[in-house]
Amino acid sequence: MSQSSLSRRDFLRQAAAVGGGILVAGCASESAPAPSPVSSDVSSAVGMTAEEILTPLGLMPGSPDHPKGWTTSLPDMPDDMPVAPPVTISSFTRTDADTRFQGDDTIYDNISLRYIKALFGSEYDIPWTYVQGEERDQKMNLAMAAGDIPDLMPGITLSMFQDMVEGDLVADITDVFEATASQQWVKDSLEWGDHQLWAYAEVNGRKMAFPSVAQAGQDEQILFIREDWLDKVGMEPPTTLDEMEAVGEAFVQNDLGAGPPGTTVGVMASRDLQSWYGGLGPVFGGFGVLPSWYTSVSTFTPDGQGGLRFDGIDPKMKEALAFIRRWYEKKIISPDFFTKGYQENRTEVEGNRVGMNLTHPWGGVVASAMGSMQNDPNARWNWVDVPTGPVRKGKNYFSPLRTGVFAFKKGFEHIDKILKQANFEAEIVLSPERRYHGFEGHNYQWVEDRVEPLSGGTHGYGIINTRGGANISPQSNMNSIQWKLNYKETVPRDQWDAMMELLLDDPTGLQTMQDEGWLFLAEHSLTDTIRNEWNGAPTELQKEKWTGLQKLTDETYFGIITGQLPVDAFDEYVVTWKAQGGDAILQEINEWWAQKS
Amino acid sequence: MNRAEYRGIRSRVFDILNHLLLIMLGLSCILPLVHLLALSFSDRAAATGGLVTLWPVRFTAITYEKVMEAGVFISAFWVSVLRTVVGTTLQMILVILISFPLSKSKEEMPGRNIIMGVVVFAYLFNGGLIPWFLVIKQLRMLNTLWALIIPQALPLWNVILMMNFFRRVPKELEEASIIDGATYWQILLYVYLPISIPALATLTLFGAVGHWNAWFDGMILIADRDLIPLQTFLRTVVIKMDMNEFMRNPEDFGLYSDRSLRAAQTLVTVVPILIVYPFLQRYFVSGITLGALKG
Predict the structure, then answer these.
(1) How far is CA A328 from the centre of its chain?
(2) Same structural domain, A309 and A206
């Protein structure tokens, strides 16, 4: 058997050699193709205008040479820019279904990057991309572990930012911000709403990041309603919650929905009692209270005695729940609403089974009326203000402060370059009269004397207009809409250029409906809303207790609405909520509030 | 009616009911796919409005154009095919080469228990995401196709399965081969492997499905657009927004509810694996009926 034992050893050796060889072969191949460099010569361009720099490179926005074209007027160049030789800034970016480029452009080399490099001498290097926030956090954790923190970290979560501040990993931008940011376009814009936009990015009075800003009124609701259904039942749009109940009941009793008999929904309701699409926030708001926004730790409102109260345990909440319970009994809201989120509810609305939907103008037009009218050409939608309840007219106030921030790596030398780029871009965003509509062949194309939009096209890099990221002012969208509507009124129709025709011609009336809705929300955002005053970072106690309390709240609320629990179960809930840590949390929040005030 | 006729009718009724039941079971498997197919060829509004059942409403193929847009789809498809073929082949070679010696006793294979201990330890405990990432980075495999293949090249659970299967092969077969002068390589190739076709087919299927469906490693380890595997790419095409994130750009929702697009994506993903299944199934049956020893 000696031969056998020899061959066994041989066998093992050979097996190991084969396996190991393959592993080694795998490791040997390591060519990581680098993103191709953006090509443009930016030397000696300091002192030139933006147009002089961009035109020879074919990077100037606008279409001045077409008979119905328009000219883009870019702001003055920032001092000492473009930087030569160019500086490299590493920063990740978001990509998703809507990220599209024309021609051979990619997320790593595209018209926006070429434009930025030509104007500012800043070259963005994208080490990785992400689709969802969770993925970004995961990759950030890996980047930190590997010691590869990007220079600019757009939109990172608050908790990650706090950890990084504690770990001394992010740059203090206070001084460079004071010295570089434009007073008019950046500093003043970020002072919107009494400095509240800095709530997260400032730590102990120092600016440790750039804030992430959304649009004013972005998630606030108005009441979208089927006008053709109103005509059928001979009723007027409701102005009070009782009228809304009567209209909803009439819709249901007449079974006006397009689905099988008995499936008409009078008022859309979502499993998230407060949400931007089908949330019943304004119904609760009519009683002067609001439930939590999704699963976030809210809503804490002034208690009239200088402190904050938790709306969820207020006696008025009990009244609101009893009121909605009645809607449930009358089948005004869907019998299984507690299982339905945005996706399912949108299916109901676009399938023409719903009469009223509390949502914001985008949700009411793009995510409702457009599909609904495609499926039924006779469907007609319109919107009215949210109805008044027994206490007031009230809905959720949307804070344009996003919970992410734009942080910079500690020791990164070119923060001033990013801020100068931001000054330039902020001026464009806030000046619709400059007529920046992107690039021909990327954002739009000419078809004879008309322009057609192209999907995607440009992508934001830096701290303004990044994908899924920031804006500079909560008012910028309103500015654009107002400017557009003003143009429509003041410029005769035959003098419109092709881009304005694209933006203003509105055969269905839906675009105007959406624009007017936005303006209405922005104008009423502070008066008709209930504002959650608590916007601190969650404490350890809250992190530990909130999930349980939220579960208790959901079970009680849904139980009461669906009749599984008596309305009086609310009283017991309040006692349990307080005992299970609610009181302690409320105390913490009030301490925070006292300190803040 | 005599007894025989009565039995005949009973048996026919049973047959009919049996067939009906089987047809219903079959339909319950096929109809969701037909529904997906109909959705994928339907107009967006009709799909979102829940109007599509088993036939497309307002027929359009735009979803498929969208899925395959930008050329990345094609390259991603090939990356997935490549990683599945190379990755599964490599997996099978390594699993066989390691599980065969491990299936021997410690007398035949000195150090067997130590190696087995390492295998079991590595199977039960792993270092977690960050060490895993750092190792791959240090080996300079980031952004290479190998990052999708090497880290998964030795699935230890498969080693344990294969080893147990080899152990069940009758000892006499090996002894007979040794008497006939076969080497261990020959024993493995001509005796063990042909007998183990059911196990090989199963593990190949595990490996292929695992590679085909994997998206996480592509997301973490690959940044280069040309090397992104299909599942990772499709995730960026049809991604759902996280509703709790306050990132509600109106644009973000343009495709969020695009049920027709998601249906097309699902079909494109499922079809290649559906095609592989019946071929491998043949081996399950023939492998099991293989007789090795008689009497």
Answers:
(1) 31
(2) no
